[in-house]
């Protein structure tokens, strides 16, 4: 009987310990996102570098990595063992890119090498977050949305409503990228507060006319709503309502995207950057084998994350990384529809993951970097791209299995000798055959 009593108590203590670790890890992640966003409200949008902001970014990064390594070091190792072949291919490409660092000044070589290794470490730590139980994962990612939308509200309160797309000294595309990350992460958690986060982040992205952010939010919402639950009359009615709204407010939508603004044709926004992309293609042709991660000048990357990959990892490595990214995104969409309807919580997480991947990979066409440890968009891309598959958790393995479906260890431990004797006695009782 003692083993029967001790086991639940041990499980309760272990559960409380895991809850504390999850809570502290969440706080560390939220603080990092806060330090990535709030300090830029004090910086001129056209200032190339600010030591003060770099200090905040570095402090947040070190805090999160230290928390992940101290509180849950095995989660990162477990996550690496569960990466898909496409995700592992990106890891291999990043590792191989270390060979491209050995050119130019020694300081640049050391910085590029250190940044590459730091990227791999952060990717492992962020991937480890996906081993949390479903409720904890939803709270963790939903909390990011609250932090980022709080930054948006804070900026509006300090600087006032955007004038000419600018919120104080914050670049509109940086502001829009933060609002897109808020929208994407808020979909992981249920509740009216998360609905408010989505509404506010979309409105603020539209207020600065950040085209990629507005379209990214719409894509994320549509994919989530169409896949989070089985297709039915509610989903069909929602789709009709969305199309109707787009038709009725076509003029407003056109103004938000500034489709007829001649000042935003070739060097800004959704429809242009042709000259910058051409310059990036020329730089790629001059260095087809790549320059190494974080080594190319910003002006040569075309303000496009995928072109930057081709310039950093080379035509071969960059193309493979882009193909792997596409494979990860498509597989995330496919796995939602293979997920049974009996696990709605997991289906919701899978739908939010797929929607987030589509949104951030689309936005990366108009963001200067996909991987950036000092930028909200760059960190969110890493978080989504190295996320673990959700569908596998419905198979009866791992911490994502609903409690009702987890095999009970109590039954195994309560088979004391007396209980075993009773089982043996019952096995010898004759069974009456039916007439």
From TrEMBL:
- The residues that cross the membrane are 23-41, 53-74, 80-100, 112-130, 136-158, 200-224, 236-253, 313-337, 349-367
Q: Where in the cell is it found?
A: Membrane
Task: Identify the species of origin.
Answer: Bradyrhizobium campsiandrae
Q: What is this protein called?
A: O-antigen ligase family protein
Record-level Gene Ontology MF annotations: ligase activity
Q: In what residue span(s) does the O-antigen ligase-related domain sit?
A: 200-321
**Superkingdom field:** Bacteria
Q: What is its main location?
A: membrane
């Amino acid at each position: 009987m003692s083993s029967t009593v001790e086991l639940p108590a041990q499980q309760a203590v272990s559960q409380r310990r895991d809850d504390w670790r999850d809570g502290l890890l969440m706080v560390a992640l939220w603080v990092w996102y806060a330090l990535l966003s709030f300090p830029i409200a004090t910086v001129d949008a056209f200032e190339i570098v600010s030591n003060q902001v770099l200090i905040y970014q570095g402090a947040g990064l070190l805090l999160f990595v230290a928390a992940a390594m101290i509180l849950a070091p095995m989660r990162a190792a477990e996550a690496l063992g569960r990466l898909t072949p496409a995700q592992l291919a990106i890891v291999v490409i990043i590792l191989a890119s270390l060979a491209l660092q050995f050119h130019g000044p020694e300081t640049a070589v050391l910085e590029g090498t250190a940044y590459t290794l730091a990227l791999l470490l952060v990717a492992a730590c962020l991937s480890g977050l996906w081993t949390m139980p479903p409720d904890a994962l939803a709270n963790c990612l939903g909390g990011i949305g609250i932090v980022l939308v709080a930054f948006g509200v804070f900026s509006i309160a300090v600087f006032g409503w955007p004038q000419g797309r600018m919120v104080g000294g914050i670049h509109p595309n940086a502001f829009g990228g933060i609002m897109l990350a808020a929208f994407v992460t808020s979909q992981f958690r249920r509740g009216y507060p998360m609905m408010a986060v989505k509404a506010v982040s979309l409105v603020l992205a539209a207020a600065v006319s950040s085209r990629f952010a507005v379209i990214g939010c719409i894509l994320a919402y549509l994919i989530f709503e169409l896949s989070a639950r089985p297709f039915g009359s509610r989903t069909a009615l929602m789709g009709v309502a969305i199309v109707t709204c787009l038709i009725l407010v076509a003029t407003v939508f056109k103004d938000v995207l500034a489709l007829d603004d001649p000042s935003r044709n070739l060097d800004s926004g959704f429809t242009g950057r042709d000259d910058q992309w051409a310059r990036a293609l020329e730089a790629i042709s001059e260095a087809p084998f790549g320059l190494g991660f974080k080594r190319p000048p910003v002006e040569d990357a075309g303000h496009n994350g995928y072109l930057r990959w081709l310039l950093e990892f080379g035509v071969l490595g960059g193309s493979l990384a882009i193909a792997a990214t596409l494979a990860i995104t498509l597989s995330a969409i496919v796995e939602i529809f293979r997920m049974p309807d009996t696990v709605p919580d997991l289906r919701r997480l899978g739908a939010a993951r797929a929607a987030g991947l589509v949104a951030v990979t689309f936005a990366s066409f108009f963001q200067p970097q996909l991987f950036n440890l000092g930028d909200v968009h760059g960190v969110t891309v890493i978080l989504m791209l190295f996320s673990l598959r959700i569908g596998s958790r419905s198979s009866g393995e791992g911490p994502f299995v609903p409690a009702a479906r987890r095999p009970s260890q109590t039954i195994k431990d309560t088979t004391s000798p007396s209980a075993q004797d009773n089982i043996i006695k019952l096995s010898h009782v004759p069974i009456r055959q039916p007439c």
